[in-house]
Amino acid sequence: MPAIKGAILGKAVVFDTQPGIKDLWFLPLGGCGEIGMNLNLYGHAGQWLMVDCGVTFYNPLQPTNLATSDNPLTAEVQAADPSFISQQRERLCAIVITHAHEDHIGALVYLWPRLQAPVYCTPFAAEILRRKIARSGLSTDMPIIEIPPGGTCQCGPFLINWLSITHSIPEPQALLITTEAGTVFHTADWKMDAAPILGRAFKPQVFKRLAKLGVTAMVCDSTNALKSGFSLSETACYQALLEVIKPAKQRVVVSGFSSNIGRLISLGRVAQQSGRYLALFGRAMENMLGAARQCGFWPEDIPLIEAGHIGFLPAEEVLVVATGSQGEPRAALTKLAEDRHPQLLLEENDLVIFSAIMIPGNEMLISRLIDKFKAKKVQVLQPADTLLPIHVSGHPNQGELDLLYRYVKPAIAVPVHGEAPHMRANAEVARQAGVPQQLLGQNGDLFILAPQARCWQNFVKAGRIAIEN
To answer: Is 1 within the bounds of a domain?
Structure first.
């Protein structure tokens, strides 16, 4: 490792932390050993490339054993501590955003003044970013370079090919990052959806071609690596929601992730086919809809009713999509549960559908929310309550992981975007798929991908900071 040279000064060892021309490094500051708060760095030839800059919610700012009941050290919105790269921002050649989910883009507006690098993203992510800037009043001079899905850009010593993939948001991109020292396939969030509601179906041939390039490492999403088989399509979810909602006699409220525009389109179609009017509750939902319309993703034949009108309709004509599937105290769903939403009052036998997973750590918030609905005798349907796929994940199960590893044929597998059990399961899938080497680590560990693969633990002190939202 010629670029990491140690020198003894007294009892301390000082290292040159800059990658050389023969080096290809991967350094996650967030999103490795956890789900959310993604912030990744790639190092080569004395320069760094940042991939994604996201947030997490309601987590300890320090490890649990350092927090006490009197001082839990939590904050509602948090980001990875960027100190390592912000202290040498002259070496940060670019920030690349793979897609517009909050755990990939949500911290950028707040951290960018400390980073000051140009931002590359697709048009939809750019629209979301500009809306965040307008609301916050921060980072108004952020240079945003729009890259079309499937495009190419050169950022310092990094050549980046953007590869369209399927996920639960418009324009999700995987990245092929090419340097003189090697090539990384960074999957970001993905699944293999043969029938998405929005965008094109997954195309295996695009990724099979990567095998001919000799990919050094595949840095891969581990979210569903503990699940066997294959994830279901968004079309299957649409059909399940229609089957549940069409025979309902009362009001129906569906809560899910606001960024899943395909799910919103599905519910718009369900409203049309069940004789209901569709309204959206929640600032995040309305903002995503505005961005989808601006970028041409919302079908013009799906009407929406003003939120203020929905409470005057007969119960059997009401379909609401509300934010707050994770039990967030300030979200629309909690306001409905507590009879304090200004536009709608739920009554006995109305139906609330959770079209979302329960993110680890949110169990208590969601349980309390459901108890409030049940106390009002409002029916609640969660994914675990039915065999129908009223929610489908945007991430790959083991079957998809296995296929993608066999398509790409990387020399090294680097599981990320998961807790330790998820990443271990991902590594085992890679091993069985014939990937010669698997590297496992955590935030702050340095993954040396070239010239010789290894993982240097605790290379950087990784942490979290609270940000305003």
So the answer is: no
CA 194 to chain centre: 20
CA distances in angstroms from 227 to 23, 188, 365, 419, 436, listed in the order given: 35, 18, 25, 14, 23
- Spans of the chain, pLDDT less than 70: 1-16, 58-74, 469
Token output for 171 = 């324009």
Instruction: Report the pLDDT value the prediction gives residue 190, as an integer from 0 to 100.
Output: 98
- The sheet carrying 24-30 orders its strands as 144-146, 119-121, 92-96, 47-53, 39-44, 24-30, 446-450, 454-456
How far apart CA 279 and CA 238 sit, in angstroms, is: 17
Q: How many residues are recorded in the chain?
A: 469
Per the structure, how many domains does the chain have? 2
Task: Give the containing element (helix H, strand E) for 245.
Answer: helix 234-245
Q: Are 389 and 237 in contact (CB under 8 A)?
A: yes
The amino acid that residue 192 corresponds to is: M
What does DSSP say about strands 318-322 and 252-255: parallel, antiparallel, or unpaired?
parallel
Residue where the block lists tokens 């507006």? 109
Query: Is 206 part of a structural domain of the chain?
Result: yes
Do 120 and 40 belong together in one domain? yes
pLDDT of residue 68: 39
Instruction: Give me the amino acid identity at 273.
Output: Q
Cα radius of gyration (the chain): 23
User: Where residue 278 sits, what CATH number does that domain have?
Assistant: 3.40.50.10710
Q: What is the CATH number of the domain that holds 93?
A: 3.60.15.10
Q: What is the pLDDT of residue 71?
A: 43
Count of other CB atoms within 10 angstroms of residue 339: 11
Q: Are residues 43 and 174 in the same domain?
A: yes
Residue 283: helix, strand or coil by DSSP? helix
178/376 Cα distance (integer angstroms): 57
What SS3 state is found at 61?
Answer: coil
The CA-atom distances, in angstroms, between 160 and each of 46, 97, 220, 379 are 17, 12, 17, 49
Q: Please tell me the predicted confidence (pLDDT) of residue 59.
A: 66
- Supply the pLDDT for residue 69: 40
Query: Among positive and negative, which fits the CA dihedral 338, 343, 348, 354?
Result: negative
What local confidence, expressed as pLDDT, does residue 60 receive?
63
- DSSP SS3 for 109: helix
Distance CA 455, CA 443 (A): 12
Residue tagged 């998961």 (tokens): 418
Neighbours of 142 (CB within 10 A): 19
